[in-house]
Design goal:
By secondary structure, the chain is of the alpha/beta class. It has seven helices and seven strands; from the N terminus they run E-H-E-H-E-H-E-H-E-H-E-H-H-E. The protein has a single domain, classed as NAD(P)-binding Rossmann-like Domain (Rossmann fold), CATH 3.40.50.720. Helix 1 crosses helix 7. It is globular, with a radius of gyration of 18 Å.
Length: 258
């Protein structure tokens, strides 16, 4: 059977939840979905400013809301999904973007450091996916779950053992959830970015030209590079793809560093 090619989606009437959507990659993912007509809900920490997100809603005549959520608290996750169902009823697309990066040396790393990273980067991702999938099933939605992993899941650098371990877990979780949820027409995929030029990179001493030389493609990654792949995985074009991790890093993971 030959399937007819489908045009790239708009996301009208789609409810999209993006965890950690106030800053960095998440903020650009939110902007991309708002521009294409989705109703976008983001989570944010109390310390994170949602001004840009609200400005995107205004600029594109978008609909959505920002919900403060602490992913270290099970009650907060429960309240998040209760609030979404009560106000928006359903979820079509979940983007698990919220994450914690706190580099620390191998010899100073504590149990608490390790557990906190796993709680945010892996366990909260599972809990959000579980609750989103239940809503998708309740309303018979062929949903999409997209997890943000990292190049650190495949290769690493000093002071990132806990972070790399959590992101390796994200890749495994993605495969396992894909198998569990495929019978329900819910796909689960991950994107593993390399170094992306977000707020935490723009600080004294940062040199874009110097950093760009590390990449075979000749430049640092941008949040929009990752958002483009999220849109693909959220679209109808990706319906036959599940359980995969896409490494999007300008060739960095292919480069032999000597």
């Amino acid at each position: 059977m030959t399937r007819k090619s489908k045009p790239l989606n708009t996301f009208d009437n789609q409810i999209v939840l993006i965890t950690g959507g106030a800053i960095g990659i998440g903020k650009e993912i939110a902007r991309a979905f708002i521009e294409l007509g989705a109703t976008v809900i983001i989570t944010h920490l109390r310390t994170e400013n949602t001004t840009d997100f609200l400005a995107y809603l205004e600029k594109y005549n978008g609909v959505g809301e920002a919900i403060e959520t602490d992913f270290l608290q099970d009650e907060a996750i429960e309240q998040l999904f209760t609030q979404i169902e009560n106000r928006w009823e359903k979820i079509d697309i979940l983007v698990n973007n919220a994450g914690l990066t706190k580099p620390k040396s191998f010899f100073q790393l504590t149990r608490r450091d390790f557990l906190e990273t796993l709680e945010i980067n892996l366990i909260a991702m599972f809990l959000c996916s579980q609750k989103a999938a239940k809503l998708m099933l309740k309303y018979d939605i062929p949903g999409r779950i997209i997890n943000i992993s990292s190049i650190h899941s495949q290769a690493t650098s000093p002071d990132h053992i806990h972070y790399s371990s959590s992101k390796g877990g994200v890749n495994a979780l993605t495969k396992a959830m894909a198998v569990e949820l495929a019978p329900y027409r819910i796909t689960v995929n991950a994107i593993a970015p390399g170094a992306i030029e977000v707020e935490r990179f723009i600080k004294p001493g940062y040199n874009r030209e110097k950093a760009s030389k590390l990449f075979p493609i000749g430049r640092m990654g941008l949040p929009s590079d990752i958002a483009a792949f999220v849109l693909f995985l959220a679209s109808e074009q990706s319906e036959y793809m599940t359980g995969e991790t896409l490494f999007v890093n300008g060739g960095l993971s292919a480069k032999l560093c000597l």
